[in-house]
Gluconate:H+ symporter
Amino acid sequence: MSLVIIFFCIALLVVLISLCKVNAFLSFLIISILAGLLLKMPPAMVAGAVQKGIGDMLGGLLIIIVAGAMLGKLVAESGAAQQIASSMVRLFGEKNVQWALMATGFMIGIPLFYNVGFMLVVPLIFSVAYRYKLPAVYIGLPMIASLSVTHGFLPPHPSPTALAEQFNADISTTLLYGVVIAIPTLILAGPVFTRTLRDINPPFSKMAHAAPLPESQLPGLFISIFTSLLPVILLGVTSLVAAIEPSAAKVPVVAFITDPSIVMLVSLGVATFTLGLGQQMKMSRIMDAYGDAVKDVAMILMITSGAGALKQILIESGVSSEIAGMLGALDIHPLVLGWGIASVIRVCVGSATVAGLTAAGVLAPLMGTLHVDPNLMVISVGAGSLMFSHVNDTGFWLFKEYFNLSIRETIRSWSLMETIVSVCGLIGVMILQAIL
């Protein structure tokens, strides 16, 4: 009976978010409380579990997500992203402009929150498309695919970071695996797939125009790339140290400086000087940018905390052990199962973050019995959460309106690109699982 209750509550969560348009955070709270009561938990225990789930989830994520959002905002405000894009186009040349934009999207997508990244790169895409007289969708979709992949696969983005927390995965290792899977995924979903889209060439949308900063005001290329990728560099060093000398990671000083929260704070501190004060930005303007960045991720943090509440209800009610027994009887690989659950919720709800965190809420309490690498589970669920974006996803409409497309053209380009990213992500996870 408890399994029926959980499936009913998840279905109701989908209905509340997709049909009733209830805020996702409130939906998670309502469903968490309802699930606890239907599972006959004492009301006081339900309230305590919700509060504990929210606190435990935010405790490990707040610094990483907020510092990452602030770093991304400064990368955008300072002109570092524009500098990287311009330099990459010059480096790759006109014939390889797709590859230039894809590489740019990957670099600036790591620190940038997806919606901020989208708004930033669209004017860059259209300026390049206008300059070289190329279809905007053809050259721009690989860049948008880069943002999508970093959003779904790579910490310190909110969703994969939250998934890593849920599954007790190592953020540095998850990032390393994510990069390995992301590169072939991007090639297939970007330059290879867009060969079929050259005939989609609508007039430029007025929404896409934005005045770039003058070249004289842009930071240097090295500083732009180094600062944008500093979290990756530091987390990569962390993973390398752990691989070479596992005992070193247990030394208190090393454990402190390699903690992901400290890594993000160090990266943000460096960026404040290299892209902020070093570019003659006033401290007040830098802090305003950081304040705006918090607004950008506030709802993501709330949704994440709501997912933590649902997870705690499943644990404290004891229903997670029943789900574990049921899943153990299924003849399906746990990584495929995680991808499948996230995919179904994504198609129903539209939000990649909600899809990933809901799937994690079901699977996280079972990780001890599933016997899979938690780092790969993060990427598998993250890939599933990107599956077939359509009319219930705000990303679908953003892409449609900015690129001035019909719904059919948007499905043919954006929706299929997201599907390719999702499926290739799962394939990459299964290949790594077989190798490791």
About this structure: DSSP finds 20 helices and no strands in the chain. Residues 43-77 form the longest helix (35 residues). The CA atoms of residues 70 and 290 lie 5 Å apart.
